[in-house]
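Async update (no meeting this week)

Hi team, since we skipped the sync, here's where things stand on the single-chain job. The sequence we agreed to prioritize is pasted below, unchanged from the tracker. I ran it this morning and attached the output directly underneath so nobody has to dig for it. Comments welcome in thread, and please keep replies under the output.
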Amino acid sequence: MTRIKYFDVLNILACLSVVFLHHNALVHGWQASSAWAQALIVEVVCYWAVPVFLMLSGATLLDYRKKYDTKTFFKKRFVRVLIPFLFWSSLLLVKQCLQNNTFLPDYHFSTVINAILGYQALEIYYFFPLILSIYLLFPILSLLTENRKILWYICISIFACDSIIIPLGGVMDINSLAAFRLPIETMLIYPLLGYLLSTTNISRKQRFLIYFSAIVVSVFRYAWTYHYSCITGATDRTWFAYQSFCGVILACGIFVFFKYLNLCNNLSAKLLSLLSSCSLGVYLIHRIIMEYEPDVFGVEINGNNWRWIFPFVTYFICIVIVLLLKKTPWINKVVP
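Output:
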């Protein structure tokens, strides 16, 4: 099967953006400084990473029936996502216990299972239960790929209710609007949009409208967060939810931009494929690497080097480790 280069480019950049976000903890603790203002730039610019990961899942997997049956689909997802999630969660749980930094009051079976499945070992592993729950809906949604109007209707409904009405209700202190929340996983909008945008011919005029909207919502999010954080003396998190219109419009803008970026076609397909294949592994281990970098390299975690340079260092180290693990028998089963 021919690889689509812009998928690989988005995968790589989304992975790197996640690393940038996790080197950017300063943004969550407001301070009246230029450093915090810079951290907010990183937060806004890299905000699209997780949504685009989900969009790529939809773009590459929603029409899986053209390639294999549902049993094969679940087998592939189980091997690629569930097994690594359980292995690394268990490993990190053991690591915390051995360091006497355990959060487990006992070692009862239910306590351990709750700790693993509740991503208590590492909070960023929330992504795995999320994506697995979305995969459970793919056998149904895949039947709708020939009826795109229904898929667009689902996206528009989620966007109207969960991306606009409910967030604005919270801003205006009209909390009763939360009753309009749709009884489905709201992040489902991203894989559906990924499939639809990847298979739709978008005109030049439509593209510029999407790009302009993405820039506007990003500027809006930065200005709003900066202004109200300064007023309250704490980071304002009004627009930090991925399902808000700020997240949806920005993710669509990034996705469409790289879809039509000719530069993607001039990049090495082999290199892109190699780096892209490491992204999930990088996601699994990068926070572990980050834990040791301040002591090893003597870097201040709220300093400029940590925020602007070390994301690249962390990413490179993780790529090397993942490539080595992929060549190691047995271990390669838990590094997808």
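Quick observations from my side:
The CA atoms of residues 67 and 94 lie 39 Å apart.
The radius of gyration is 20 Å.
Reply here if anything looks off.
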